[in-house]
Amino acid sequence: MKKVLFVATVVKTHIMEFHIPYLKMFKEMGWETAVAAKNDYEVPEDCVIPYCDTYYNIQFERNPMALGNIKAYKCLKKVIDEGEYDIIHCHTPVGAMMTRLAAKQARKKGTKRKKGTKRKKGTKVLYTAHGFHFFKGASAVNWLVYYPVEKWLSRYTDVLITINKEDYARAQTFKAGKVCYVPGVGIDLKRFSVGHVNRNEKLSEMGVDSKDFVLLSVGELIPRKNHEVVLRAIARLKQSKHYERLSYVICGRGTYEPELKRLADELGIAEHVHFLGYRSDIAEICNCCDLFVFMSHQEGLPVALMEAMACGIPVLCSNIRGNTDLIENNVSGLIADNTPEGVEKAIMYMLENDKLREQMAEEAMKHIKKFDLVQVEQQMYKIYQEVLA
């Protein structure tokens, strides 16, 4: 029986979010499946991974320099050396770095099996880069640290998969066996066809007046997601005739939440801002809001933005890699300067153009079909088959 191992830094916020369809794919092909990742559930017993035969709780640390990663590397290498996997598919910077180093021996042809015989083929290592840390506009430190490491590690990569056009172009200079472009991890469009949602009831449940023009952001509450610029833009709208009927809904958790709440208080806009925490009903919430605002500083190919497009909510976003793979400015959404002034101007423009918002939402729903999970799964299936040929 053929065997596959998926590696990522964490289970709950990565494996469970993005890779269950692919574990299912391998199970349906008759493969034995395994996952190596840190159990990041608040209640450890909740960590149950569908379509996974064997789970290895590897204590990865997100910081590549953390001492705990030495032990994590040793544990992962043992899993790989003893597992005799046909394919290892690694994700996330730390998980992928350790996997490619730990699998150097396993990739070689003729590696001895546990029974003493030799394998005809070595393990094939695939790495999906969910957005390189070096990109147009990234800091010099990111380029000095991450670029040479990724380029060096690419020589231990049979297939390097990129999910946006900028990364794909840059990876052409790397030493990977093959470089592919796949449009993200795929989005299940059927999940976002929720039908009619009672706007009044849903917004009331969220503490929002149904007469308001409702802005929505979805994402982890960390500086990189840049919710701050939206708060400052709303503060600049205080003199606008629309301000009293403006609400901003934020879905997500994160370490930056206290700082964002403090900023909303300082700006005097707290009563217009609603922190909802983690939500499992994003599709319903999207269908009740008027404008999706996504001003992140850095993305690979943002799932939250893809979900908003699939729900048919007009989009306002920043001019960064990933966003520009999804949004054509003034056609399927609006791309704005990532400043309080730029966002303020863009919100007003969208708020005062009902017909334009409707047209953009329709175009976005058409465009997002290219990123449907079914199509992405077909591309990944082809890559898996080719790497084994």
Provide a descriptive summary of the structure in words:
The protein is built from 14 helices and 13 strands. It is an alpha/beta fold and 389 residues long. α11 links the parallel β12 (315-318) and β13.
Topology:
Layout: E1 3-10, H1 11-28, E2 32-38, E3 54-57, H2 68-83, E4 87-91, H3 93-102, E5 124-129, H4 140-153, E6 159-162, H5 165-171, E7 178-181, H6 199-205, E8 213-218, H7 227-236, E9 246-251, H8 257-267, E10 273-277, H9 282-286, E11 291-294, H10 303-311, E12 315-318, H11 323-326, E13 334-336, H12 340-351, H13 354-367, H14 373-388
Parallel strand pairs: 1-2, 1-4, 2-3, 4-5, 5-6, 6-7, 8-9, 8-11, 9-10, 11-12, 12-13
Tertiary shape? elongated
Largest β sheet strand count, sense and barrel closure: 7 strands, parallel
The secondary-structure element order is EHEEHEHEHEHEHEHEHEHEHEHEHHH
Top-tier CATH class of the largest domain: Alpha Beta
Indicate the mean pLDDT: 94
User: Could you say how many structural domains there are in total?
Assistant: 2
**Rg, nearest Å:** 22 Å
Strand order of the largest sheet: 3-2-1-4-5-6-7
Strand tally is 13
CATH architecture of the largest domain: 3-Layer(aba) Sandwich
Number of helices: 14
Strand content: 15-25%
